[in-house]
Amino acid sequence: MIDLPLPPMDSVFVDVTDTAGIDVAELDRLLPNIEAAAARLDLAALDLIARRVAAIAERHVGRLRVGHLVRRVDRQLRLRRAQVARQLGQPL
Description:
This protein is mostly helical. It contains 4 helices and no strands. Helix 2 (19-39) runs parallel beside helix 4.
């Protein structure tokens, strides 16, 4: 499972001015996590990452830069998930 540090609860609801930049940085950090989860054959971690990518995509529907990176990460995620499922003998 991916261990991400949680921020203090009082800072969770602070108004963030550059959410797109923050989410782009997070998407960049997810690519190595996808590879690590695939190497461990961890479908649960890949599903968790997929939910995170979907949440980011939902937040930034009209932003081209975020949308491009979401598609790139999603493509890599679906490829690795299919490979792991095939190795484990599970349906896609």
